[in-house]
UniProtKB/TrEMBL annotation:
The keyword tRNA-binding is annotated on this UniProt entry: no
One MF term in the entry's GO annotations: 3'-5' exonuclease activity
Name listed for the protein in its UniProt record: DNA-directed DNA polymerase
Keyword field contains Transferase: yes
Organism: Chryseobacterium formosense
Catalytic activity as recorded in UniProt: DNA(n) + a 2'-deoxyribonucleoside 5'-triphosphate = DNA(n+1) + diphosphate
Entry EC number(s): 2.7.7.7
Record's keyword terms, sorted: DNA replication, DNA-directed DNA polymerase, Nucleotidyltransferase, Transferase
Pfam family, one: DNA_pol3_alpha
Alphabetized InterPro entries for the sequence: DNA_pol3_alpha_NTPase_dom, DNA_pol3_finger, DnaE2/DnaE/PolC, DNAPol_HHH, PHP_dom, Pol/His_phosphatase_N, Pol/histidinol_Pase-like
Polymerase/histidinol phosphatase N-terminal domain location: 1-68
Region (Disordered): 996-1017
Taxonomy, superkingdom: Bacteria
GO biological process terms held by the UniProt record: DNA replication
Amino acid sequence: MFLNCHSYHSLRYGTISIEDLVRKAVDLNIRTLALTDINTVTGIYDFYKLCEENHIKPIVGVDVRIENEQYYICLAKNAKGIAETNRLLTDHNCEGIEIPKTNPSLENTFVIYPLENIPECLLEHEFIGIRENELNLLVRPGLKKLIDKMVILHPVTFNGTEEYELHKILRAIDGNTLISKLTENDHCQNTEIFVDKKKLLSSYKLYPQIIENTKYLVNSCSFDFDFSTPKNKQHFTDSRENDFKLLKELAYEGLERRYPDGDADAKARVEKELGVIDQLNFCGYFLITWDIIQYSNRMGFMHVGRGSGANSIVSYCIGITDICPLELDLYFERFLNLNRKTPPDFDIDWSWQTRDTILEYIFKRYGKDHVAFCGTNVEFKYKSIFREVGKAFGLPKEELDILAGKPMDQHDDNSVFRAVHHYGKMLEKYPNQRSMHSCGILISEEPITHYSALEMPPKGFPIVQFDMHTAEAIGLEKFDILSQRGLGTIKDTVDLIREKRGITVDIKDTTLSKNEARCNEFLSIGKTIGCFYIESPAMRGLLRRLKCENYKVLVAASSIIRPGVAQSGMMREYIFRHNNPDKFEYFHEVFEKELGETYGIMVYQEDVIKIALHFGGLSAPDGDVLRRAMSGKGRSLSALQKVKDHFFESCKELGHPEQLSKEVYRQIESFAGYSFCKAHSASYAVESYQSLYLKVYYPIEFMVCAINNGGGFYRTEVYVHEAKMSGATICNPCVNLSELQTTVYGTDVYLGLMHIEKLEGRIAQMIPEERKNNGDYTSLENFVKRIPIGIETLQILIFIGAFRFTGKQKHELLIEARFLMAGNRPDNRQLTLLEEPKKEYQLPNIQRDPFEDAFDEIEILGFPVSFSPFDLLQTRYRGTVMAKDLTKFHKSQVKMLAYLISRKHVPTKRGAMFFGTWIDAKGDYFDTAHFPNCLEEYPFQGGGCYLLLGTVEVDFHFPTITIHKMAKMPFIPDPRYSMDQYRSLETARLLQEDVSMTQRKPYPQEQEIGLPRQRMR
């Protein structure tokens, strides 16, 4: 009887979760239920499963509405019916095709119209829904004759009076209006709630035909769905047999290329893997991924195949990954085993610049009807909830800012704020909007509209209406097509070296850039700024603590830096054991046998599974539950609890001491959702080495490309500084030598026009394009006639020195610009065939303070170029110790003068603490720790130079200064505003710092870990 139920997937309309909807139906003994969310099928698969579990017949469909007007309700007679409705919505969402208000072309779908939208002609499968409160209208002749085409319509949208108010709030949020301004058409009727089925039927007892029609619809709908069969594209060629034949051929071709000297183990591994891949019918999945990589290679793009896919030697041989699984003892079963029913998961990274090209190829190659992104449900967030609900109540901006910006206990205690809190809490976990998954692509065998309607978000690629978990549940495994800036930096550096030096670097040859002696030297001292994944202060500190000087240690470092490993104390313990291999015992022989390479420390997901199986005696399926939990894919807490119970039972049977078993499981548990699989760490390590190789041998070109790719962990200024430290001469933008991006001539690095914040992007592109087409600019006047520029923008270019090629001082150029622009609109200026000789003006020679340029640069670029920040200080003091000597001052108090690069916030029980990264006057980096008690008296005061007093702590080769006192040091007054004391101090405040906020706990110290270093018997 309930043919029009809305869940909270009817965004900003319904208030009931799918679980609550089904639970309520069970409580009321309802045996048939229809889910018809507004314009979406997001919830139908979870709904179907829950109904089946509770012995309720599920009916699925869509409530079709356009701009808040209900056209009709579609109920799928079968799977074809939902596909038809999906196509109807998709054509509207993606192609802009208008949805017909009546008589849509649907053959396998029942259509139910509201009284407000009865068509002139009702087709056989079309009916009219009549609500209980509309029955008295049936005395009208026009409606009376239609009774034989009517069904019971009792929509369900909310539970109880409180949720009805929540529904109105949602409608106000959706309409960006006040609750008090909602009209009756803006929200549902107050009767849209579950009622007793018998009571509802009794209301229609005078109209048995309506009841019979409703029963007919209910009995005629049958949505059966098979969750067990794969829905991905099945074959790359025309058949399973030919897929296997092609994959085998490619694998053996790659085997000869990867192992030119022949390798019996590699050949045996290829044979074994091919057998499993074929048995699981995953050849097509491998070949589709290979095809995408082939296109990427033809385009000259770089990619990184990472994740557990790198455990496969077949994927290594056919070029999907660049990790030899034999070298790192990566076992294939972590990626694929005969217990696995779903396709494998390849994570492929491309440069942020080329990813869209790859996506366009996939959509074109496999057809827009078969390809879409995964969707994702964006929930109401804490701050946005209170702001949105408060806005619906009509609160002014000042109070909305308080609601969004302050903790709840600091809000006023009044009736409106209490209502905002109450309804805001109810909205937690409610979906607010659908968005695009960051990387998950679905490629289906059947048209993808068989499973979902598609939507077109602003990014321009269609998405399905459900998330990755639902996709996986129904048998649609995603291809992860990711992007990152590190690959862009590597590719651009290789291209720049070829362009500027005529040298071709085969960076894909990992024998060239892996375990190279000079690179290892840089690695061991943390000289890695700009390098993918290993440039953050925490990672550079870890590399120094480990004296990391080979590939395998770097692979381990890539994993132990992860929060799960670090916070469990295992990162700390790994550092100790790496530096003191003779000062510990393996506390059980299983750890020595299985984890000897990592000193008995669980570092990778594989290690956890090894210990669960070989120490804990768990079964392979239990190990897979653990694997999924650790990768964030396992959503069943009950399944994980069962594994935990089995673990302790088995440990007891095996005779392990209880204390040891508890400690081992503590380590296992700490990994959940955070650890890398070893292959993933290895893939990251390869890319880190590739970028490090370029940094070591082509440092200037590398830093230029890091700048152009938006850097990484740090702001542009830091990469400019690094280029300077590498021997580059940094030059301000110049209209005759700069490009849009930063470029290099020999060792002269010209900052790109893109770095001038107030320069319009269109003009920044036009300047080098015009120069390329028509030659260098010969003068300011020549420039003004060729580029349609306003006086304010022209002045910015003059202040940054972009016309210094003229040999004129800035004040001369500014006066000349005023003359040239007087009464001249930019679009009226142009070059003429016969140029009149320009008028020369004799201007007085004005003595400029040399520091004026530095303050111009801070104002326009955000950092000084002509001078270092230290040159602008009022003091000439530079500290008693330099960064390079800090290791000699363990436990000593030092005074240093330093420029702030970045700081990282870490909450503690005693308050906030920070870790700072600085450079000294010689340009070298060092790190500091600031505890809450110190910060109260000596807080950070923004970017700039500070005088620091603290004690040096050298921790395994890495010095950190624990700060006791610090003070920000004043710059000289800005000479450009010598007559205005306030403005003369203002520019220095523009200096930036990189601030990263985190909620992680501080990493435990050695004495806090308690990990046994002796054998436990």
